[in-house]
Amino acid sequence: MRYIPHTEQDIQQMLETIGVASIRELFQDIPSDLYIEGPLPIPPALDEHALFKRLSQLAAKNADTTRYISFLGAGAYDHFIPAVVNAIISRGEFLTAYTPYQPEASQGLLQSIFEFQTMVCELTGMDVANASMYDASTALAESALMACHITGRSKVVVSQGVHPHYRQVLRTYLWTNSRQLVEVPLSEEGVTEPNALRAAVDAQTACAIVQYPNFFGLIEPLAPVAETAHQVGALAIACVDPIALGVLKPPGEYGYDIVVGEGQGLGNAMGFGGPMLGLFACKQEHLRRIPGRIVGQTTDVEGRRGFVMTLRTREQDIRREKATSNICTNEALCALASTVFMAALGKAGFRELSETCTQKAHYAARLLTQIPDVRLKYPNTPFYKEFVLELPRSAQAVCDALLEHNIIAGLPLGEYDASMERHLLVCVTETRTREEIETFAEAMRAVLER
């Protein structure tokens, strides 16, 4: 158990109860030369994140260890995870739990899923959320198929601002289901080109998909995309970074029909590419079409609150070829981690986290663009915690050189677009300190001056 200090009032009350005038009188057997009077000579208190960082620095003195500072994002993010997250998800009843088909034996797990669904709805501004999916890419692909089923149409329009890996999975899903995929290019400002979007959307379009913020960290204008889609009877789908919704207006308030996203940053550590956590929410009217499962709240015969598996229409064992999806499970343990993470932060803490990411990213962008011949690729478009730098030479070569300084500089974009061979996607979360950001800028300057 963690030590919880007593207040002065608590201490005085206990002393009076046992008939002692002071703490010193209580410990009068300790010689004066060994008794420390007043506060202990210890450093000021640190928050949990800063304390772990300090302990890591002290531990590093024991061995020759190499520690890299990472500015890599692009879909998997280094956010601080409070100790309470791992403490709870490591409990046996959660860590070993399987699908809660028997509600009478699974109330704890069912309630944790219900709370997760509730929090996802609050974040996205939607009416209903499922119990989670594999990751953002499969959630996005499932949302497109769901839109096709709802509208009876076969054409899916997606912005090229959506993560290229997500688009690749989407392309595979749609190809195997004989659906058409149309990609909309970006404007010079790095967001979805509105005229191209209007030209791509027609009476055969099932949905229009946009990422918020997009792959380059830029904040897409959501309203025009939803309006364009709805004018032809198509659905509007947004793929979100949930932490960004701490400062950004949720898609639900723009009239979006489906919202998906990646929940890894909500309390789940990066582990060599996984596990990830797919978020999926939609309007109430589409409830029966949602893939995955939904946990609901009810009352028993004695009027007590309880939780049950309300919908699982995707199950092959129930609907077989009529199933809404072939998704066979949910990421319950990762969803629980996200639930504990969000509950631990609370609304104010969640907003502070999002604001801190924004402030640190803008501070880093300001320092880095003070280096000669380094500039922002999209200087006029608001960005969240990621931004694109245009460098005077190959971004891959710069990244390789910065590894010698123990810095993972970001993602070179040349492998996704040959015309962006000199562009670097940089991510800054709340875990990066001012000193680390300044070290990055100094190392970047040194590398480019060689």
Tags for this model:
Aspartate Aminotransferase, domain 2, seven-stranded mixed beta sheet, 15 strands
Describe this structure in words.
This protein is an alpha/beta fold and 450 residues long. It has two domains: 69-81 and 346-448, Aspartate Aminotransferase, domain 1 (Alpha-Beta Complex); 83-341, Aspartate Aminotransferase, domain 2 (3-Layer(aba) Sandwich). It contains 14 helices and 15 strands. It has helices at residues 8-18, 23-26, 48-60, 83-89, 92-95, 107-124, 136-151, 164-176, 194-200, 222-231, 316-319, 332-368, 395-403, 434-448, and strands spanning 69-70, 128-129, 155-159, 180-184, 205-212, 235-240, 258-262, 278-282, 294-299, 305-311, 375-376, 386-390, 407-408, 411-412, 423-427. Strand 5 (205-212), helix 10 and strand 6 (235-240) form a beta-alpha-beta unit. Helix 4 runs antiparallel to helix 12 (332-368), helix 7 packs across helix 8 and helix 12 crosses helix 14. The mean pLDDT is 92.
